[in-house]
Design brief:
The chain has 303 residues and is of the alpha/beta class. It has a single domain, classed as Ribonuclease Z/Hydroxyacylglutathione hydrolase-like (Metallo-beta-lactamase, Chain A, 4-Layer Sandwich), CATH 3.60.15.10. 19% of the residues lie in helices and 22% in strands. It has a seven-stranded mixed sheet. The chain has a six-stranded mixed sheet with strand order 7-8-9-10-11-12. It starts with a strand and ends with a strand. 46% of the residues are buried. The model has no long low-confidence stretch (mean pLDDT 96). It binds zinc ion (2 copies). The site of one zinc ion has 7 residues, from helix 1. It comes from Acinetobacter halotolerans. Belongs to the PqqB family. Keywords: PQQ biosynthesis, Transport. May be involved in the transport of PQQ or its precursor to the periplasm.
Length: 303
């Protein structure tokens, strides 16, 4: 399985257009050593030509421009993107669908809960009906493995994440199974497994077992500390209130990753306030010392 990181930042990207936190200001002015990053999305392929998008970020136009492999140019209008899987209905993971409208019909895989949000609070399914067949809905049962036509060796197993639906969801205050999922992706040809969880509010034994059995884990690296948004003055919510487990210290995701021997460990969905974005930070050095990679746009992994 080929994995290509289209975007590695959390919502807002890095730098966020209206933010002057030390990281955003630093990368904008070139005064810190850091790479700009677009909003999180990855692409998966078996053959290197046909790809499945995992989330469709608002930055997708730039991401696909930079990802030349996704344009095989076999005919006048063409794309290597065959399908889209949505992990939730958050704007930073779904608004890219609007940008893909010229390529409709597009196969979109998501849970019934996500489909409801995207047919009501943010009705992108309804809107795009007016573009050549629009978005073709394929339902993900959050408890059941599924396959996608044209990708015979890949199997997708959803894992239910406990987290709230977006503010515009009709069931924002009434959480349902399937509002948010992570994915276990098995490649039956190479016998390798990826665990992709860009939003992870907590790590329990069941997630630890999945990660032990995986060859690569790409997990939530949104925040270094739980109160980072408050500390940097950009927000009032804690990480866990937003469904993102912090990385550092006791109970942080790094303490769990340190218990794993098998998988390649990658943090993705990095918020622009996170000190690990500064390549000269002690936090970045700490991750390096523990063998944990920070995803960047254009990163490629083979499993
Ligand atoms: Zn996000
Ligand atoms: Zn910022």
């Amino acid at each position: 399985m080929h994995i290509y990181v289209l975007g590695s930042a959390a919502g807002g990207g890095f730098p966020q257009w209206n933010c002057n936190c030390p990281n955003c200001h630093g990368v904008r002015t070139g005064t810190i050593s850091a790479k700009a990053r677009t909003q999180s999305s990855i692409a998966i392929s078996e053959n290197g030509t046909d790809w499945i998008l995992l989330n469709a970020s608002p930055d997708i136009r730039q991401q696909l421009f930079d990802f030349k492999t996704a344009q095989p140019a076999r005919q006048l209008r063409d794309t290597g993107i065959r399908s889209v899987i949505l992990m939730d209905s958050q704007l930073d993971h779904t608004t890219g669908l609007l940008t893909l409208r010229e390529g409709c019909p597009i196969d979109v895989w998501c849970t019934e809960m996500v489909y409801q949000d995207l047919s009501s609070g943010f009705p992108v399914f309804n809107m795009l009906k007016h573009w050549n067949g629009g978005l073709q809905y394929h339902q993900i049962d959050p408890k059941q493995a599924f396959k996608i036509d044209g990708f015979e060796q890949l199997e997708f197993l959803p894992f239910v994440i406990q987290s709230a639906a977006p503010p515009y969801s009709p069931h924002r205050h009434d959480p349902h199974e399937g509002d948010n999922i992570a994915l276990i992706i098995k490649d039956h040809k190479t016998q390798k497994q990826l665990f992709y969880a860009p939003g992870l509010g907590k790590i329990d034994e069941s997630i630890m077992q999945i990660m032990r059995d995986s060859d690569c884990v790409m997990i939530d690296g949104t925040l270094w500390t739980d109160d980072e948004m408050q500390q940097t003055g950009v927000g009032v919510k804690t990480g866990r209130e937003m469904g993102h487990l912090y990385i550092s210290g006791e109970g942080g995701s790094l303490s769990y990753l340190n218990q794993l021997e098998r998988p390649k460990k990658v943090l993705i969905h990095i918020n622009n306030t996170n000190p690990i974005l500064n390549e000269n930070s002690t936090q970045c050095a700490e991750l390096k010392a523990h063998g944990v990679d920070v995803a960047y746009d254009g990163m490629q992994i083979e499993l």
